[in-house]
Amino acid sequence: MDLKSYIRDIPDFPTEGVIFKDITPLLRNPKAFSFAIDKMSELVSEFKPDIIVAAEARGFIFASSIAYKLGVGFAPIRKPGKLPYFTVNEEYYLEYAKEKIEIHVDAIDPDENVVVVDDILATGGTALAMAHLVEKLGGIVSGMIFLGELSFLKPREKLRGYDVKSVITY
Into how many domains does the chain fold? Predict the structure, then answer.
């Protein structure tokens, strides 16, 4: 299945010069969505995770579906002030803004095998921040899985030392 045909480009969103990869047509199509989850689940399962982490909001869609399919846990990573318990945080840069994300202090156990999941890998900033949060809690990032990767932005340079796999490459 050609998953790229279910992802549309939105120019100048959220800021001028950015071409946003909109996954909502893929999510709306049951066959495309199922195919994407199956392909991503195959990649995640290679790492034998104890738990999967993802950042809000689109990452939650894929990561929670994969966690359910594989029978493993899921830990949400959110923007500041959204998690009700004690948290650790990490600042990072997107191609158009500075951000901060948080995870509960008890979301990852020491030496737990963790896979980072997200929809689109752009510059690698969010993925690296998620990995740093996992590592702050003593977890081991065994892999990073993405539906799509914007290879022209060279995100793997920022993610050296991590095993990165994507279903689609642009």
Answer: 1
Indicate the SS3 state at residue 109.
coil
Active-site annotation holds for 91: no
Which amino acid is residue 71, in one-letter code? G
Task: Of 65, 64, 72, give the one whose Cα is nearest residue 47.
Answer: 72
Residues 145 and 44: beta-carbon distance below 8 Å: yes
Catalytic residue flag (residue 46): no
Alpha-helix residue ranges (DSSP H) falling in 100-168:
125-136, 155-158
Catalytic residue among 58, 90, 102, 112: 58
Q: What is the pTM of this model?
A: 0.95
- Name the residue with tokens 């359910």: 68
Asked whether 137 and 105 are in contact (CB, 8 A), the reply is yes
115-157 tens-digit pLDDT: 999 999 999 999 999 999 999 999 999 999 999 999 999 999 9
Active site residue: 46, 95, 102, 149, which one?
95
Q: What is the CATH number of the domain that holds 152?
A: 3.40.50.2020
| Domain around 91 | 3-169
